[in-house]
Design brief:
With 365 residues, this protein is of the alpha+beta class. The protein has helices at 2-38, 45-81, 84-90, 95-98, 100-136, 239-244, 257-266, 272-282, 284-299, 308-334, 340-364, and strands spanning 143-146, 149-156, 159-168, 174-184, 189-201, 204-214, 226-234. It has a seven-stranded antiparallel sheet with strand order 1-2-3-4-5-6-7, with helices on one face. Helix 1 (2-38) runs antiparallel to helix 2, helix 2 crosses helix 9 and helix 10 (308-334) runs antiparallel to helix 11 (340-364). The longest helix has 37 residues, at 2-38. The protein is elongated.
């Protein structure tokens, strides 16, 4: 037990050291890039520093698997140079048993990432995106989901239009039981339009079963209401704008993601990318374990065997390959090419199997 605590402490120190190095480099790079792209009279180095800090948790969270494999390589290279691995084997500890503590630490880091860091990343990423959009003068979102239906907003020549729909078609281009509320530049209601169905076409909404009320206050709205079979309302919205307004799945805390997926599907939108992201987050501790095993498979050997640099290169290349495989599988899952469970769970499980095969080959030949 004492030896396992020793391995766990050494691995945790190695991981935190590597994490600190990456955090410093990423923060400085983001600050320079933010200052270059957003610099203005109102946005200086102090604002760029704050925005870079907001972006830092999300960037670090993405590269934790790579930090994990580098921390593993660093740890076992140090232990090989000091002959600690030889002493451990002489004491009757196999390589597999020596890896129990680092694997548990990696699983613990993955669990902390899901339960605590993921919500922090979601919050900071959302604030950073809103800050960046505000500086650039862009609208952050045109869409909002609630239990009562779908809410949209669009610009109009004389103000704003707020849209509410009880239902949406699977493709997201048609709204059902929809209401358009027109507001003037003083944010006062001007007109209400109710339609049984509104379809988004290039540059306009095509509505059927329409009833229009004048809310300007000059007449009784119901007395002057007009019914029409068809009506076209100009719009600058596009389907891509509506879909992009949902934001990245990573901007939603994992504890809120299942409920958001339910709302998204109830509104008629596909939630495949959010499902893939959810399972990918749940599989992240397993993926971190695979990174530890990959790093150990090439470096749990004494330096007198030579080719240390080549083994480190192989470990880094395999770690990057598994990271690429995970990203590629997630893309296939988001596009529906492969099932969600395979997209999220196959890369980490494949990495574990491959690393264990290499470790067993080294131990038993």
């Amino acid at each position: 037990m004492t030896l396992q605590w020793y391995f766990a402490r050494r691995f945790a120190v190695s991981f935190l050291s590597m994490l600190s190095i990456f955090a410093g480099l990423i923060w400085m790079t983001d600050m320079v890039e933010t200052l270059r792209s957003l610099a203005s009279d109102e946005f200086g180095i102090q604002e760029a520093t704050g925005l870079a800090l907001l972006q830092l948790p999300g960037t670090i969270y993405e590269v934790i698997p790579l930090i994990m494999v580098l921390a593993t390589i660093t740890l076992f290279l140090k232990m090989a140079r000091t002959s600690e691995l030889i002493v451990t084997r002489a004491a009757g500890r196999s390589a597999i048993r020596s890896l129990i503590a680092p694997v548990l630490v990696a699983a613990l880091i993955g669990g902390i990432g899901i339960s605590a860091i993921n919500p922090i990343v979601a919050a900071t990423s959302r604030i950073a995106d809103e800050t960046r959009d505000t500086v650039r003068g862009r609208v952050t979102s045109v869409l909002s989901l609630s239990r009562n239906g779908l809410w949209l907003r669009q610009a109009a020549p004389d103000g704003q239009i707020v849209i509410h729909a009880a239902g949406v078609s699977p493709g997201g281009t048609a709204l059902y039981d929809v209401t358009f509320l027109r507001f003037d530049r003083a944010a006062l209601p001007k007109q209400r339009i109710a339609a049984a169905r509104a379809e988004l076409v290039p540059g306009a909404w095509d509505m059927t079963g329409v009833k229009t009320w004048d809310l300007s206050g000059r007449t009784n709205p119901e007395a002057s209401a007009v019914e029409q079979a068809w009506m076209r309302l100009p719009s600058d919205l596009t389907l891509n704008q509506i879909r992009d307004s949902f934001g990245e799945p990573s901007a939603i805390p994992i504890w809120q993601l299942p409920a958001f997926i339910t709302q998204l599907e109830a509104a008629g939108f596909a939630a495949l990318s959010h499902r893939v992201w959810l399972h990918s987050e749940l599989a992240s501790p397993v993926f971190l374990i695979s990174m530890v095993l990959i790093g150990a498979a090439f470096t749990m050997r004494h330096t007198r065997f030579g080719r240390t640099g080549l083994m480190v290169l192989f470990a880094v290349l395999l770690g990057f390959s598994m990271y690429f495989l995970k990203s590629f599988a997630l893309v296939l899952g988001e596009t529906g090419k492969i099932p969600v469970l395979i997209a999220a769970w196959f890369p980490p499980l494949a990495g574990i199997c491959l690393a264990l095969a290499l470790l067993l080959h080294q131990e038993d030949g």
